[in-house]
Amino acid sequence: MQQHVDLQAFNTFGLPARARWFCVVDSVVTLEGALQFARAQTLPVLVLGGGSNVLLREDFPGVVLHMQLRGVQQLADDGDTVRVQAACGENWHDFVSTCLAHGWHGLENLALIPGSVGAAPIQNIGAYGVEAGERIESVQVWNRETASVEWIAAADCGFGYRDSVFKRQYRDSRIILQVVFRLQRSATVNLSYSALAQALAGQEPVTPQAVFDAVCRIRRSRLPDPAQLGNAGSFFKNPVIPAALHRQLQQRFGDMPGHAVAGAEPLVKVPAAWLIERAGWKGRRLGHAGVYEKQALVLVNHGGARAQDVVDLAQAIMADVRQKFGIALEPEVQWVPAQQGLDSRVC
Ligand code: EPU
Predict the structure, then answer these.
(1) Does pLDDT of 264 surpass 90?
(2) Residue 210: its pLDDT value, please?
(3) Could you tell me the CA-to-CA distances from 37 to 32, 41, 42, 64, 131 in Å, in that order?
(4) Element (H or E) spanning 141, and its range?
(5) What is the pLDDT of residues 146-160, one digit of tens each?
(6) What is the largest CA-CA distance in the chain?
(7) Ligand 1 pocket, 231 CB below 6 A?
(8) Does any ligand 1 atom lie closer than 6 A to the CB of residue 295?
């Protein structure tokens, strides 16, 4: 257990914040000990993976658990389906690369997403037509209420768009330890995302390796590398609005994009990047924080930004988008401590 640890290198935004207590968790025994320590002193606990989806708004007064359990193992292979278990501390992109190298297919669309395996189920990471939840079979967690290890089947994880039970009812009570994936030996690829299909147009046959390479190329051309420019990926979720409202807005903004979302009622998902760009924010700066010039959904630290710079920028964008389109943006990045009243609403 270390004290007064600088967290700047542990969050990809590169924001300055300190942890009163900091523990590198490389085993369940270490985790149990750190949680007992926190409980004995009634300290809050913050679970940190790759730190790629978090906005640390201030110093953390409790115990930061830096999850570093390691290991990837094949559990079963029937020639069609391969079951693979990965520990929470594995780097996500390295895990995707390992799977591809072994001929375990299905995760190539999720290449180059920053963060750790343990963070993947929490917000159900997704990109280029695939969400992690579609490939997850079960998740092993530490249950803080019963002080024991338990398994949760994917069907009980409540996976949705950037959502799961781990962001909601299990937020404070379950800590992800291991994730089991169901992958395929067959080389079937998912080209449902039009930008990906376009990038691979004319290539036959399209292999999982080609998809992996194309996703890496697209991401490198559009998204900033956190090692060079601090950021936490998409800062906001793409808002889902009633189809009727989308039609109304299209009468005023003829080129407003949107994709129908399957479900009981007619809903449309609108790219937040388009709303932010049309509200005039793309490439703009406020203090040391700014909106990335090539992708308006990404807020960046131009160097020396403090959390308040990012908060001010996010709130100014949210206010403008709400005023111009009547749509409330919801941050995708987790604010620590949480900010009340930031739920997605359409006004
Ligand atoms: N667009 C703009 N301006 C921009 C960028 C995009 O108007 O600056 C519009 C365009 O109409 C474009 C559309 O937004 O066609 C979609 O853009 P893009 O394909 O870049 O995807 P996105 O909706 O902005 C989402 C995810 C990304 C993921 C990509 C690809 C969310 C919150 N973000 O972004 O995820 O990589 O799709 O699947 O759903 C992340 O979560 O950190 C992340 C990067």
Answers:
(1) no
(2) 98
(3) 9, 6, 8, 12, 36
(4) strand 136-143
(5) 999 999 999 999 999
(6) 62
(7) no
(8) yes
C-alpha 45 to ligand 1 mean position (Å)? 32
Average pLDDT, the chain: 96
Residue 122 CA, ligand 1 centroid: distance in Å: 20
CA–centroid distance, 133 to ligand 1, in Å, is 19
C-beta of 233 in contact with ligand 1 (< 6 A): yes
> Is 97 considered catalytic here?
no
Cβ atoms within 10 Å, residue 58 = 14
Among candidate residues 57, 135, 162, 174, the one labeled active-site is 162
- Half-sphere exposure in the Cβ direction for 264 (13 Å, CA): 0
The residue type found at 238 is N
Task: Summarize pLDDT for 80-132 with one digit per residue, the tens.
Answer: 999 999 999 999 999 999 999 999 999 999 999 999 999 999 999 999 999 99
Report how far ligand 1's centroid is from the alpha carbon of 297 (Å): 7
From the CA of 53, give the closest atom in ligand 1. Answer: 42
Ligand 1 atom index nearest CA of 297:
24
The pLDDT of residue 346 is above 80: no
Q: What is the pLDDT of residues 292-319, one digit of tens each?
A: 999 999 999 999 999 999 999 999 999 9
- First-to-last CA distance in the chain? 46
Walk me through the domains of the chain, giving residue ranges and CATH numbers: 2-67 (3.30.43.10), 72-221 (3.30.465.10), 236-330 (3.90.78.10)
Q: Give the integer Cα–Cα distance in Å for 81 and 318.
A: 44
